[in-house]
Amino acid sequence: MESATPAEIGTQALPPSDQWSTAPVVPAPVCRFENFLGAERAGTLLSYAISREADFSAGTVLDPLSGQISHKGRSSLVLPVTSTVFSAHLADCLPLVQEILGHRAALTQTLTVLTSHGEGGHYGIHTDASRVHDVGTALSAVYYLHRRPRGFGGGQLRLYDTLLADGGARPAESYRTIEPEHDTIVFFPAGAFHEVVPSTCPSGHFADHRFTLTTWISGTGSAAAASASASASDGPFRIWPWLAHAAERTRPLADVDHDHDGASPIALPAADPATRLALPAPRRTT
Ligand SMILES: O=C(O)CCC(=O)C(=O)O
Ligand SMILES: [Fe+2]
């Protein structure tokens, strides 16, 4: 059969315009790992979280303008923890994660909490600006744990896109949905708007909750410095300063010394050259 000549869509069907939209909607860079710790360690960590039921307390939010701590828009249980083993494992993943996310700034410390969401658990739209030194360069890492079969419903993480318009940036209406699957971890910019949608827990048992080990990873550098040192050719993403722009009004105005949920920083070790992850080489197809 002879191939037809493609039809031209004329100006009657598509009038020319100088009014095309110039406002891109940009997804936040994200990187996920499945089977992150492996079945045995994930199971042990889940049992540990369940065994600490009596020590969890209601998670808080910090108003960026007034500095007031409240429970507004959030129903989560939290337990501040530290783990040098987990931080060391994160450190080994970070070179690869940073490469994938187009992230360039140095990262030096972590802040970690265990969280639990049961019946009616949720965490409204927010950024993690209140947890980190510089919202333009920090990362959030959420590691999920739950019993199988899964004892809760809902509880998805929504990671909002960012709309770049009028020289500024703001959260878009569109988002990516991340399922809180057991033994998976997700990394994303701490300045990206995100939300935990309401969860249900029909049994009402704590052991059936949705658990996380949530870590905020900060450096001391600024987004401006990181983007100034990056040339257009050295990576696919230069979205970080724009995310920071969108998150600006969620940053606490005064320097906050203490985490509002009581988490304490620990130093991020250097990646171990023997165990650090690297981007696998693509397999040749010929
Ligand atoms: O649990 C999640 O999926 C995200 C938690 C979160 O956004 C936070 O603790 O700041
Ligand atoms: Fe968050």
Automatic annotation (TrEMBL):
Could you tell me the keywords of this UniProt record? Dioxygenase, Iron, Metal-binding, Oxidoreductase, Vitamin C
Q: Which coenzyme or cofactor does it need? A: L-ascorbate
Q: Metal-binding among the record's keywords?
A: yes
Which InterPro entries does the entry link to?
HIF_prolyl_hydroxylases (IPR051559), Oxoglu/Fe-dep_dioxygenase_dom (IPR005123), Pro_4_hyd_alph (IPR006620), Pro_4_hyd_alph_FE2OG_OXY (IPR044862)
Stretches the record annotates as Disordered: 1-20
- Any idea where the Fe2OG dioxygenase domain is? 106-219
Q: Which PROSITE patterns match?
A: FE2OG_OXY
Naturally occurring in which organism (per UniProt) = Streptomyces amritsarensis
Q: What is this protein called?
A: Fe2OG dioxygenase domain-containing protein
